Amino acid sequence: MSLHKKYLLIALIGTLSASGCVERAEFDREYGPERTLVRDQFVGSIYFGTASSSLSKAANADLARMAARIGERRNLGTRVVLIGYADRKRGVEENSELAAERAQRVAIALEKRGVELERIIIDSRPVRVTRAKEAERRVDIYLDGTAAARPGSLYPILVAFFLLVTFVLAAIIFRRRR
Question: What is the pTM of this model?
Answer without folding.
Answer: 0.59
